[in-house]
Amino acid sequence: MGVLRERLYRTVRLIRRFEEQAIELVRAGVVVGGIHPCIGQEAVAAGVCATLSEDDVVLSNHRNHGHALAKGCRPDRVMAELAGRVTGTAGGRAGSLHVSDYAAGLYGATITVGHGAAIATGVAWAAAREGSGRVVVSFVGDGAMNQGALLESLNLAALWQVPHVFVCENNGYATTQAVGTFMAGSVTGRAAAFGIPAETVDGMDPEAVHEAAARAVDRARSGGGPTLLELVTYRFDAHHTFEHRVRLRYRAEEEVARWRERDPVALQGSRIPPDVRDRIDREVEDVLAEAVRFAQDSPRPDPADALDHLYATGMRPRAGVVG
Amino acid sequence: MPKLSYLKALNRALGDEMERDPSVFVLGEDVHEAVTFVTAGLLARFGPHRIVETPLSEQGVANVATGAALAGRRPVVEFAIPFLLQLVLEQVANQAHKFSAMSGGQARVPVTYLVPSAGWRPGWGGQHSDQPHGLFVHSGVKTVMPTTPTDAYGLLISAIRDDDPVVFIAPRQALELREDVDYADLVPVPLGSARIHRPGTDVTVVAIGHHVHDALAVAESLAGEVSVEVFDPRTLYPFDWAALGESLARTGRLVVIEDASRSCGVAAEVLATVAEEMPLAVPPKRITRPDGAVVGCNPDLDAALQPTRDQLLAAIRQVTKP
Ligand SMILES: Cc1ncc(C[n+]2csc(CCOP(=O)(O)OP(=O)(O)O)c2C)c(N)n1
User: Fold this and answer.
1) ∠ CA A227-A101-A317 to the nearest 5 degrees?
2) How many CB pairs under 8 A join A and B?
3) What is the model's pTM?
4) What are φ and ψ of residue A198, in 5° steps?
């Protein structure tokens, strides 16, 4: 337990500080396009991914840095990806929105919300056929639970009993819409409709998340089919860094303050000895200082290569302008 | 020599490729019963893990195919009606097509989307009669539309083997065609290679899909009067511009016939590219459906919106008149 405790703390702390640094890089103009921070939601990524091996696969969404780091992507390469540098996990082609690292089992983030879950069902279908015991996890928000393609994939995953764990990070909002204003029924009710076991879990507590995820992953690995986990969580920060400029007012300050009292980084930190915590904090700072340096110092892709990788076969399309 | 029908060619290509490569499998509605015939006999040969019956969940299934492809499979998704391709435009153009680029080359998505009944058939009404190939061409998704059984066989093999997503459209009006073939002569046809069905010296007719057969009939009827070259791109994207350039270097005149909306269609692209890059003796002509036409279910009204042989003949006369 001690080892897991420390590991979970290290991960939530890493994600928190990574995103704080990334926001700095957005402000400095190094990360163009902004980011969707998951500050406040770190327990979900840390708890779920701690139950996975490198071979297991994650499909993520727009709020993906936590998933990437928890799945084992190198922080320096993820930071470089955000900054669009050639040393990034996708050579600077993905940016913040589409971070992927196939070696680490992160098959990317699709920004049509909910659709990554359907792609994950396909990966899980193939995993089940090859009998590898690989498990696939998809992360979606509460807003995504209203996408038709996601509901279709719940049906398909249940029908085919594929090893797919659907993780819904219910942070209460889809951009500015409060969940109660847009969701008829409930997150777990959608799973129930398809006969998929579902559980609502405290998504602010890394250990509670880990326990529930371990049950779901075990079920998937042993051929028991899909599970849906609703992790009740909260984002302390903006939907997207553009909010830092436009000052939206869809949440009361008291509400944010109340949730901040349940900070997952503080909670997990309180479970380990202070000296160990300090050591981990220092290590994380070192890793991130190096990551920021690495990202800033890495070269940008050559504009002449803008069409690289458009086709897996290497086909080059015609130029947009004919000379 | 055996007679090979277009549908049998598709069926044979699928079977051959599934035999050769265990990662190939089919997903679709009614594929167990082989309603379109394309999967006839394949369930018995390969079982339900390779011929996968799916619910009516096209968007989910198209995404599942992407996921299975990311995991190393080569899915062929069958859509029995062309409008279903419009339903999954997002999954094909925005998801499957973009994974390679967005991942910096880490991902490949070798999915084939097979539509073995594309296009208009009389009396099927407004929502069964669209021709969506241009949407995929516009999105940069590889798109093929063979018009003969041999080409259907060869291009389906190549589409399945290709590491990128490929939309494969079998034109409705070509499905009943038969060809005398020796099975040993069935070979892969490379994507992006055009075929000249009939050489000529006065005018090049670029005919898309089933209109190849109209163009051949019109060319025959004009024999002795006008020498018509019938050019079948076979692959709409990538288009074989080099072959078209060579053809126009011989003829210097161009008519394009395509059963799809006029604006931003493949015919429009052919005219635009030729205008920019290739010498023409006279302005070209295109024959298409009216813009955004909704084809009804009255056969006479339907037919009034389709490109016809008479229109083609008139256009050929116009561009070749002395
Ligand atoms: C299908 C779709 N509709 C709209 C958007 C624009 N959009 C991006 S993120 C977002 C909010 C998503 O909310 P939720 O799924 O709850 O995830 P969260 O941002 O709360 O993590 C929206 C509406 C999108 N990306 N995809």
Assistant:
1) 115
2) 145
3) 0.94
4) -140, 155
